[in-house]
Each structure stands twice: as structure tokens, then as C-alpha cells.
Design goal:
Elements lengths: L1 H6 L5 E9 L3 H8 L8 E8 L5 E8 L5 H10 L4 E6 L2 E7 L5 E3 L20 E6 L4 E4 L5 E3 L6 H15 L1
Antiparallel strand pairs: 1-3, 1-4, 2-3, 4-5, 6-7, 7-8, 8-9
Bound molecules: zinc ion.
The site of zinc ion has 8 residues, from loops.
Length: 167
């Protein structure tokens, strides 16, 4: 335990995502868009852990992850735990859980899928396999692997950027 603490400094305020599957920290940061944050982040990759031989860990200072981000992390790394820290103390700790059906969070990139039509239909994916992750769109039945996931929150942001450029 002591050794682990020395490797990654404690933060006074912010979020700690722990027990991430080894090697997935950067994927999580990238797919959730957390990597666009301007806050200080400490990332530990392949940190030795008692529970799972090695793990990744992410500490983000001064930011409390929101519900959507926690749900996204549950999809990318179902073993992860998220702690919110204030004054060096854990004020909230959550163990994320992968749902069997993922609604609204993920986009189907198949342009002919009904979820991409003008109909107001929320996306829905069935979790076929947890590890390695495999999900299937319930509408067009297209299957996605973890690396292919596009979160809806990211699309919204990109749209905003495009709007700004157009102005
Ligand atoms: Zn689809």
C-alpha cells in the first residue's frame, strides 16, 4: 500500500478513477473527452495492484466527474472505482457497473441506422460480451468493439465546435 501511495501523489480535490483495466487509461481519457480538460491530471499506467496484478489509475484535480462520465467509464472499464476527493478525503466512492443495455450514451455510426434518421429515437446497445467489450445496436444490429465506441456527449461537443467555426 505504501509503495502505491508513493507512486501517485494524493490530490486535495478532484476525482480519482482507480482499478482501470491495465492499458486502458488513455482510451478512457480519449473516448470520454476528459483529455480535453485543462485541469492537472496524473495518469498511472500498469501500476502494480494486489487485486488485479496491474491496473491503471487517473487523477484529475479540481474536477468532479458527472453521472454521464461515470456511466461512460463503466462501459470502458467495468472494474473501475471512482472517488471524489475534497480536502484530501474521499467524499464519495462509486463502483461503476456495466449495464446490460446501454441507452442514449453511445452513437451508432451506421448512417442508415434508424437511430440516425430524423426520428427522435434514442440509441440502444445490447452488451454481448463484457471483456473484451462487444456491443450491438438493437436497431441495425451492427456490432462494435471498445475502440469503435463514439459517445453521444462527444458528438454534441464537436457540433458546437463546427457551429462556432461557421460563425
Ligand atoms: Zn444502429
Amino acid at each position: 500500500m505504501l509503495e502505491e501511495k508513493l507512486k501517485i501523489d494524493k490530490i486535495s480535490k478532484g476525482s480519482v478513477i482507480d482499478h482501470i483495466d491495465a492499458g486502458y487509461a488513455l482510451t478512457i481519457l480519449n473516448l470520454t473527452g476528459i483529455d480535453e480538460s485543462k485541469n492537472l491530471m496524473t495518469i498511472g499506467v500498469n501500476v502494480s495492484s494486489k487485486k488485479y496484478t496491474t491496473k491503471d489509475i487517473i487523477k484529475i484535480e479540481n474536477v468532479f466527474l458527472n453521472e454521464t462520465q461515470m456511466q461512460q467509464i463503466s462501459i470502458l472499464s467495468p472494474n473501475a472505482t471512482i472517488s471524489l476527493i475534497e480536502n484530501y478525503k474521499v467524499i464519495e466512492k462509486k463502483k461503476v457497473k456495466l449495464p446490460q443495455i446501454i441507452k442514449k450514451l453511445i452513437l451508432c455510426i451506421n448512417q442508415t441506422c434508424i437511430s440516425n434518421s430524423d426520428e427522435p429515437i434514442d440509441t440502444e446497445f445490447l452488451v454481448l460480451e463484457e471483456k473484451p467489450l462487444k456491443i450491438q445496436c438493437v436497431y441495425c444490429e451492427r456490432i462494435y468493439k471498445l475502440e469503435e465506441i463514439v459517445f453521444t456527449s462527444k458528438e454534441k461537443k464537436e457540433k458546437k465546435v463546427i457551429q462556432r467555426i461557421n460563425l
